[in-house]
């Protein structure tokens, strides 16, 4: 006996044809206009749910799926749901259930903040700047001035490391695919 197909039909957007996603067995199929794309759920690596909020528009919910591609690389499929689509929550639950069964190694997560990546970049730039400042000052004969400026940059680096525990709390959190949070699915 085969699994019944779960289907999500999204309304057409400006200058784009309507989209249709379906899950039948272990295959996710995306139809957009004439194009059809089939992805086996066994290759799923990451299942990310998220919501984009704006003070000027209604929230937009999405599911980002990353699939392994052989020999190297990955395929990414993003299901973007505008506000008002009723079947989104049921489809995402069915997709998560099928993905959990077909790809037990996949990581299910809620999208986290992007602040942690930005902070890591700032820390790396501060560290590189402190090292370059000290090296340039020593080579030009102004070692005391260069070391003073490098120490100031290192102090900023220490402050950045001091706030990283609070930034990490806003990162991606693990989800149970059989009990997805209702706030990410658009249900009340």
Structure description:
The protein is α+β, with helices and mostly antiparallel strands. It has helices at residues 88-102, 115-140, 143-168, 182-185, and strands at residues 6-10, 19-24, 27-32, 35-40, 44-54, 57-68, 74-81, 107-110, 173-174. The protein has a five-stranded mixed β-sheet with strand order 7-6-5-8-9, covered by helices on one side. The protein has a four-stranded antiparallel β-sheet with strand order 1-2-3-4, covered by helices on one side. A hairpin with a 5-residue loop joins β6 (57-68) and β7 (74-81). α2 runs antiparallel to α3. The longest helix has 26 residues, at 115-140. The chain is elongated and about 75 Å long. It starts with 5 loop residues before the first strand and ends with a helix. The model has no long low-confidence stretch (mean pLDDT 82).
Name a few traits of the molecule:
single chain; 188 residues; alpha+beta; 5-stranded mixed β-sheet; 4-stranded antiparallel β-sheet; 4 helices
Compact description:
This protein is an alpha+beta fold and 188 residues long. It is built from four helices and nine strands; from the N terminus they run βββββββαβααβα.
Strands, helices and their partners?
Blueprint: E1 6-10, E2 19-24, E3 27-32, E4 35-40, E5 44-54, E6 57-68, E7 74-81, H1 88-102, E8 107-110, H2 115-140, H3 143-168, E9 173-174, H4 182-185
